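Title: Comparing notes on inverse folding

I've been comparing how different people in this forum approach sequence design from structure. To keep things fair, I'm posting one structure and asking everyone to reply with a full sequence. Here's the target:
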């Protein structure tokens, strides 16, 4: 208790000659002193400092992160009756209508996301960029008929168009 009172009054238990020796070994504080650069080895080329920014992390899609069997199970669960058990979801002799429906759902999701960007551009005050994006979306995301998709559509609809 007595030591803490002495410490609170500015006196410490360290002797004066030890305190003076410690203070003598510590450099004086100077807030305006410039930082000392580390020594450079001969032959080293110094570059200007640069900032490294992390790119956006791309998360894999459901299709990329699953095995073929897991994707086939997902397709059978999401689109019941459109795929057969044991049918390859990527490539098959028999048409896999569930895989076609899955690809179309992905296409529509991407189209919706980009249409939202076009709406944002228009709201931001750039109608020319919004219109250009809409034209590109119409050109890129239009569903073009092919024989496989048309045949599957007709088989599901009792061979009607």
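Reply #1:
Here's my take.
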């Amino acid at each position: 208790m007595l030591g803490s009172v002495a410490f609170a009054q500015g006196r410490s238990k360290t002797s004066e000659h030890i305190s003076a020796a410690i203070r003598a070994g510590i450099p004086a504080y100077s807030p305006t002193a410039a930082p000392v650069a580390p020594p450079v080895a001969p032959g080293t080329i110094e570059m200007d400092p640069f900032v490294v920014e992390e790119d956006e992390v791309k998360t894999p899609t459901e299709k990329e992160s699953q095995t073929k069997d897991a994707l086939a199970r997902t397709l059978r669960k999401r689109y019941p009756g459109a795929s057969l058990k044991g049918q390859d979801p990527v490539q098959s002799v028999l048409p896999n209508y569930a895989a076609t429906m899955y690809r179309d759902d992905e296409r529509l999701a991407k189209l919706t996301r980009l249409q939202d960007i076009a709406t944002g551009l228009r709201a931001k005050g750039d109608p020319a960029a919004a219109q250009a994006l809409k034209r590109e979306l119409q050109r890129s995301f239009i569903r073009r008929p092919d024989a496989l998709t048309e045949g599957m559509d007709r088989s599901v609809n009792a061979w009607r168009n």
